[in-house]
Amino acid sequence: MTPHEVRRAADRAEKVTVATEVTRLVTPSSTETRPQAAPVLRARLGAGIRMEQAQLTPGLAAAAAAASMHNPLFYERQRMRASTFNIPRFLHSYAETLDRGLILPRGMLDTVTNLAAQAGRRPELPVLPPVVVGWVVKGGQQLVHQAGPALQRHHS
User: How far apart are CA 137 and CA 3, in angstroms?
Assistant: First the structure.
């Protein structure tokens, strides 16, 4: 590409919006697909917000961009003309599971709710029951593992 063509392409490209900049749904220009979304967005609220990727439209995939942020180390090294090899440009605070689930941080509940409302969907967020880890408080003094009393009597 000539320098003139590079400048034209850069002018046409949009700024990547991430983190708190993601406040509204924008139809991505990278796809012509406009699937109809179901009226209810099913998600589970546990340690994070889990949604199935099959029910996310391209517009609602912005929730993953909202859980990302620019990596300041990348831009610092780029500014110093140092190598940016193996340094990600974005830091992602979401996880994609092997069974095609998307887990967002629990603090993004308001953002997910707002984005779903903009898409005309009503979020359905059942709260998962807390996980019991097996520790009990005895006499307000110490934590004792429930499997441990037999061992404690044995060592006493």
Answer: 69
Give the Cα separation of 16 and 30 in Å (integer): 13
CA–CA distance, 71 with 107 (Å, rounded to integer): 20
Cα–Cα dist 65/60, whole Å: 10
Question: Can you tell me the distance from the alpha carbon of 138 to that of 111, in angstroms, rounded to the nearest whole number?
Answer: 41
Q: What is the pLDDT along the chain (156 residues), one digit of tens a residue?
A: 888 887 787 777 766 667 666 766 666 666 676 667 678 888 888 888 998 888 887 777 778 888 888 999 999 999 999 999 999 999 999 999 899 889 999 888 888 888 888 888 888 887 766 555 555 554 554 544 444 444 445 444
Angular region, 31: left φ>0, alpha ψ -120 to 50, beta rest: beta
Written as six digits, the tokens of 37 are 């979304």
By CB atoms closer than 10 A (0-12, 13-18, 19+), residue 55 is: middle
Give how far the C-alpha of residue 76 lies from the chain's centroid of Cα atoms, to the nearest Å.
Answer: 25
